[in-house]
Design goal:
The chain is mainly alpha-helical. The protein contains 16 helices and five strands. It starts with a helix and ends in a 16-residue tail after the last helix.
């Protein structure tokens, strides 16, 4: 990764120069920098940090001594490292002193909602994933639209998201015990973990300390990996966020929970292409079943199907179905299109424990993509 960045240092510096803003702070005799990169650029995200005047001068001396190319490359590397590691860091014990009951309060909110509505765990897991893939895990998906300024939750891929009230309830309870302390981004990350555990899946220590973002744009939901993506598109989408092919396969296993509307897979069951009416990679029995659930005429409102037969239980059935040609989305079945991802599908299909371990590692990795600025008082609006 670093070799690639250094080879492209001129391009990186052009981006950094365009989007980095510096401010002199007399209190610490240092330069404060803030980097905000839009999603269309080579790098993406937000970072804040400080560099002392002495360090800056040393960098200038180093650049002069080593020559422009090497100096610029080193400076690029330093700023990129700062970008990847924001000024605030995540830790498992982040709220131990400021809000020791935070995790219990959130877990109770999730449990109380899930008892009344079995779709809540899948909804919260999906919500967290959609949040992290746009501007990092900053709870931007929770923000409401303002007039014509449509927020992420009103973007086409997100209109079916629900259970926002669970996060609201948790936030309300937290504000009563420790006001202004726990971020909405952390609430969502913990709620996703609790949702998996409540569904019979693994649990894990969630690193905490995320901040909430102040920007949410419906147009940016186009960055989310789509159900029609092929393996190349999936790899690109995940790699742009620092996630590997193993992360791709492991996190796709989240599809073991939940429900899908017909629109997400209809292109596979009729008018697939000029040669085939039905996607040939789909098992005929599944195609026939889905065509019955999603008729071309007189379709029931919100018609669709469970992601797998055990859609409220976190298990490895998802991978077993893919091997049978019964993956619901094109993006699910596409995991067999590459040797490395196919091998992972086979491994996870053969061992629930292997899947669970990989899923936990990838969830921690994904949920550590940060980018917020504040701790909201209300998860639906900025402070």
């Amino acid at each position: 990764m670093w070799n690639r960045l250094l080879q492209n240092h001129y391009f990186i510096m052009k981006i950094l120069a365009k989007y980095t803003h510096f401010r002199w702070l007399p209190s610490c005799r240092c330069l404060q920098f803030q980097l905000n990169l839009p999603p269309s650029d080579y790098l993406y995200g937000q970072s804040k940090g400080k560099i002392t005047l002495e360090a800056w001068q040393n960098l200038e001396k180093l650049r002069s001594a080593l020559g422009m190319a090497i100096g610029v490359a080193l400076f690029s590397l330093i700023l990129v490292i700062s970008f990847v590691s924001p000024i605030y860091s995540l830790s498992s014990n982040y709220y131990d002193k400021t809000c020791p009951d935070a995790e219990l309060i959130i877990a109770n909110a999730v449990k109380n909602a899930a008892v009344k509505d079995k779709t809540v765990p899948a909804a919260l897991l999906r919500m967290h994933f959609h949040d992290c893939f746009i501007r990092g895990c900053d709870a931007s998906v929770l923000l409401n639209s303002k007039g014509s300024d449509k927020a992420e939750k009103d973007g086409p891929p997100n209109v079916s998201l629900h259970a926002f009230y669970v996060i609201d309830n948790a936030k309300k309870d937290l504000e009563a015990f420790c006001p202004g302390v726990v971020s909405c981004a952390d609430i969502l990350a913990l709620a996703a973990r609790d949702s998996v555990a409540l569904s019979g899946g693994p649990t894990w220590d969630v690193p905490k300390g995320r901040k909430d973002g102040r920007t949410s744009k419906a147009s940016e939901t186009a960055q989310l990996p789509a159900p029609v993506f092929n393996i190349s598109q999936l790899e690109q989408s995940f790699s742009q966020r620092g996630l590997s092919m193993e992360d791709l396969v492991a996190l796709s296993g989240g599809h073991t929970l939940g429900f899908s509307h017909c629109s997400s897979f209809e292109g596979r069951i009729r008018n697939f292409n000029a040669v085939h009416d039905v996607d040939p990679s789909m098992h005929p029995s599944l195609a026939a079943s889905l065509r019955g659930v999603c008729p071309s005429k007189n379709r029931a409102k919100n018609a669709g199907t469970a992601m797998d037969p055990s859609s409220t239980t976190f298990d490895n059935t998802y991978y077993k179905l893919i091997l049978q040609g019964k993956g619901l989305f094109s993006s699910d079945q596409a995991l067999l299109a590459a040797t490395n991802t196919k091998g992972l599908v086979e491994k996870f299909a053969g061992s629930h424990e292997e899947f669970a371990d990989a899923f936990v590692k990838s969830m921690i990795k994904m949920s550590s993509i940060t980018g917020g600025e504040e701790v909201r008082k209300d998860c639906r609006v900025v402070n």
